[in-house]
Amino acid sequence: DAGVIQSPRHEVTEMGQEVTLRCKPISGHDYLFWYRQTMMRGLELLIYFNNNVPIDDSGMPEDRFSAKMPNASFSTLKIQPSEPRDSAVYFCASSFGQGRYGYTFGSGTRLTVV
Amino acid sequence: SQQGEEDPQALSIQEGENATMNCSYKTSINNLQWYRQNSGRGLVHLILIRSNEREKHSGRLRVTLDTSKKSSSLLITASRAADTASYFCAFLQGAQKLVFGQGTRLTINP
């Protein structure tokens, strides 16, 4: 298995533009998570899905953020409109069951909003 | 804050020495996990210890958990240059919410 695949690896966009981050979880994993990492706030859980259904989106900072999981092999995190304070590294992770074997993280998308 | 607190924030040792990192948390947990993050990369799961376990080993890693003190430690023995990374503790709250500490930056000097 190629692991959790995220795209793009780097994204530079202008303030106000729409940004879409993509994630392909590990086949067979039934949980998918989106995290954001910044120096100031560390790793924050934004939202997670179980069997493609959003379970907890309490970490989504604002209505400008939305996430979807249309099928078991694909998820998107969208920011519209983007702002400079959204600059961070966004990680997708997946796990099987209750996470008893740990989470598998993707390599992340480094987002810079100028 | 529901996040864990890690101590120290940064640690620099000589190759071959042992490295110990500590993590404390505030609420009851189901399990506690440790992850490594190399610069510019994603997190890699190292080891998981359940709330009813007190110690666990994996290769050069040793993890302890003291639920009465709400704390855990990660020991890396015989450190190598390749161990240079940030190490995070993470604990599972509720059904499926993994909360991370702020991390310890470990530097192994050759």
Describe this structure in words.
The complex is a heterodimer of chains A (114) and B (110). With 114 residues, chain A is mainly β. Chain A is 0% helix and 54% strand. Chain A has no helices and eleven strands. In chain A, strands 2, 4, 5, 6, 9, 10 and 11 form a seven-stranded mixed beta sheet that branches. In chain A, a hairpin with an 8-residue loop joins strand 9 and strand 10. Chain A starts with a strand and ends with a strand. The model of chain A has no long low-confidence stretch (mean pLDDT 94). Chain B is mainly beta and 110 residues long. Chain B is 0% helix and 58% strand. Chain B contains no helices and eleven strands. Chain B has strands spanning 5-7, 10-14, 19-24, 31-37, 43-50, 55-58, 61-66, 71-76, 85-93, 97-100, 104-109. In chain B, a hairpin with a 4-residue loop joins strand 7 and strand 8. Chains A and B meet through strand 4, strand 5, strand 9 and strand 10 of A and strand 4, strand 5 and strand 10 of B.
